[in-house]
Design goal:
Chains: A alpha/beta (332), B mainly alpha (325), C mainly alpha (310)
Radius of gyration of chain B: 24 Å
Number of domains of chain C: 1
Strand content of chain B: under 5%
CATH superfamily of chain C: MetI-like
CATH architecture of the largest domain in chain B: Orthogonal Bundle
Number of strands of chain B: 2
Shape of chain B: globular
Radius of gyration of chain C: 25 Å
CATH topology of the largest domain in chain B: MetI-like fold
Helix content of chain B: over 70%
CATH architecture of chain C: Orthogonal Bundle
Number of helices of chain C: 13
Number of domains of chain B: 2
Helix content of chain C: over 70%
Largest sheet of chain B: 2 strands, antiparallel
Strand order of the largest sheet of chain B: 1-2
Oligomer: heterotrimer
Order of helices and strands of chain B: HHHHHHHEEHHHHHH
Structural class of chain B: mainly alpha
CATH class of chain C: Mainly Alpha
Chain lengths: 332, 325, 310
Amino acid sequence: MSAADGGAPTLSVRNLETHFFTRDGVAKAVDGVSFYIGKGEIMGLVGESGSGKSVTGFSVIGLVDPPGEVVGGEVLFNGENLLAAGEERMRQLRGNRVAMIFQDPMMTLNPVLRVDTQMIETVLAHDKSVSKDEARQRARDALGQVGIPSPDERLKAYPHQFSGGMRQRVAIAIALLNKPDLIIADEPTTALDVTIQGQILYEAQKLCRETGTALIWITHDLAVVAGLADRICVMYAGRVVEQGKLDDVLDHPVHPYTVGLLGSVPGHNTRGQRLFQIPGMTPSLLKLPRGCSFQERCPRADAACGADPEITQPVPDRNVRCFHPHLEEAAE
Amino acid sequence: MTVFIIRRLMQSILVVFVMSFLVFGGVNLVGDPVEMMVSDEADQEERERVIRSMGLDKPWYAQYGIFVANALQGDLGKSFVYGEQALGIIVQRMPATFELALAALLMAIVIGIPLGVFAGLKPEARTSKVIMTGSILGFSLPTFWVGLMFIMVFAVVLGWLPSTGRGETVQLMGIDVSFLTFDGLSHLLLPAVNLALFKISLVIRLARAGTREIVHQDYIKFARAKGLSQERVILVHLMKNIMIPVVTVLGLEFGGLIAFSVVTETVFAWPGMGKLIIDSIQSLDRPVIVAYLMIIVLVFVVINLVVDVLYSILDPRVRLQDVKG
Amino acid sequence: MNTVAEQVEPLATPEAIEAKVETPFQRFVSSFLASKVATAALVVLAVLIFMAIFAPLISPTNPYDLAQVSVLDSKLPPGAKSFDGMTFWLGTDGAGRDLVSAMIYGLRISLGVGVMSGIVAMAIGAAIGLIAAFYGGRVENVIMRIVDIQLSFPAILVALILLAILGKGVDKIIIALIIVQWAYYARTVRGSALVERNKEYIEAATCLAIGHRRILFRHLLPNCLPPLIVVGTIQTAHAISLEATLSFLGVGLPVSEPSLGLLISNGFDYMLSGKYWISFFPGVALLVTIVSINLVGDQLRDVLNPRLER
């Protein structure tokens, strides 16, 4: 693992394992995930639904609901192992040093509390010395920062008086309130219109550059990541199958899954051609094949794939879990 | 908001009128009041004089008209048994019933909500299972029988608490109340718990169902992701949401408490409206029955109105819709 | 490429094959019996019903045959012997009747009144609810308005008013209980029928000009049955409890028809002087009846329709 830019990474996740203990067996939603993210960096965490990308995000801030449980690995945040931290320590970090933005803006704000209440409490939960007026002032500034017009009035409103896009901006403003070192955004634009999505992506990118906040952007949409991230992590069935610099990975994917994923995105230059599709469907986490979990859908699979693929670096600054990576194309 | 209240007020008045008609019609089918007013030896002339004086010779709609006209002036007729204004007798008994019902309501909230929220937060815990079994029992057990058992255990066997009556009362703003004296409080305890049991079970179920639903909402998870303390998440974010259905239902159930106090008052000889109505039904004291029913209808209508307004205050989504509507 | 995917698919599990053998009814029975508490409640309920039906054969004495009752035996504690040597296991009441016998007969009346009123109310309520759901529009509005208004008043109050008007008697109390209960059934049936009515096959049936009655009874009604059975069970428990309460208050059954509630009421006067058994045992019998019906009802709800869980 090579730290891209100098200095210790803001977040370094090593061999994270989160299992769901269901009635039908143990689902390894996150199975040995490792990645890191530096100051001011934006990382796209990409995968289909059920690939474990959201669970990874929740595991980092310690909010996995039962029957899920983090069972192994390390989450080093500014050098501190969060998996060993107690509940009170985690509470102090959440919303303060690590913030999270959720997928559905219609559901993330409490419908019966005013926006100012929900913002001020976030400030006060982490700094008792701040007066209510100061906290309100900070809430106002945060709303202004994410481009909400007339923040004073909006503070007194209830969530249902906002549109979806506006609510997501409020949620982002809440995440920004305590100037965190890391924001985990779990598909924050999936529920929004494309134009609104564009605006929010632009704001997010700008904020990270300005404040040096690291950002993990979880999404299934490669197009979003392409326009936003510095680095990309591709997850499949609970594992990171490929990660590296954004442009490298998009231009020369090495893992067959990434190749398939990129091939199935319609683009302006694929017009008239048949879109590629990955055969079969995402396997159930309860019935994964032995060895590489992608082998049943993989055109390159052979007998070797019955064993667990290790993380290798077939090209510089690229981690891949595959026995048969697409090295020909990458070498071009 | 004002438009909304006025509209609800109009509806309420309509309901009161319809109910007054039903009550009047229904109760006038009961027995023959003339039989009660004249002695057996009275001759035909005497009987007719009584019938005329009671207005029973007039057609039903005229009788109903007189009834409404009198009722609007607060005159619902004199009790056959007590010889006083029926309305006066009821109003005199009202504070006792209201005190009992309010005490029960308070218990339902203070006991029911914490237990229900707990059972909702930790559905698998042993304590939760005990709570839920208790609430099933609270639903199943007939109130009167539980009351009897209370008397047997706490009054007869243990001798800790008195079993009948209201105890010592003091005046509070011109109304006799029991809860301010120790003696009164000890008399109030058993009947209030008895009356409250069913509602406690109901509140437990409501609070549990609400908690189970809301605890999985994104906004609760988001509140935790903001680093709020567990107490704040539960007491503010969760509670404020479950209070909406609980307050609505409990408000509506207050009428039920007053109606159900009939049973508790009979068991504990509590001198309220409920005991009065049972006595009156048995002695066919028609004016008192009518007065009681009209008062109950009025209480129900007022409660419904208050709950609607309260609901709209609690839930900002409803509040704003009504401003527009 | 596709062959890989195909190899994965046809993995019929042994469970899937077994599940096909079970008929829906068998599945219903086995999932009902999965709960030990509910099974026990069902057994208790069956015993109670059996006792109620065969009361004259089971009961040690006939408590209403004046020749068999002696005032000399009145208020004997449990286990005492009568002057002619018979043991009163649960004691005797104020009139010298054997309490066991009185309870068995009382159970017969309580269950009879509850079940009878439940069945009639169910039939009436279901019919009205079906009509409301099927015809919709103004018919539905009027019916549901009446249902709402009635349900906004507590059952005990409505029953009390009705009995004040009707007077005492088995027939009177059954009528009162029917009037109290029909609205619950109407609301339940209308709710499920509405869901069903909006499905496409009903529309198709209407287009095919299939008769109204056939659609109502062959298509809508069967789909309303599961919730109806659940509500019916729980309502019957309510009806029994309500009858007992009203009888206890002295406005329900006449003294000549002593249900469990009336037995409890009779014993109430003696309770303060420590003769607890006269009220206590009929109360326990009432309780066991109501709780076992409720437990069976709860389990039926879980098995038949998890959506009903509140």
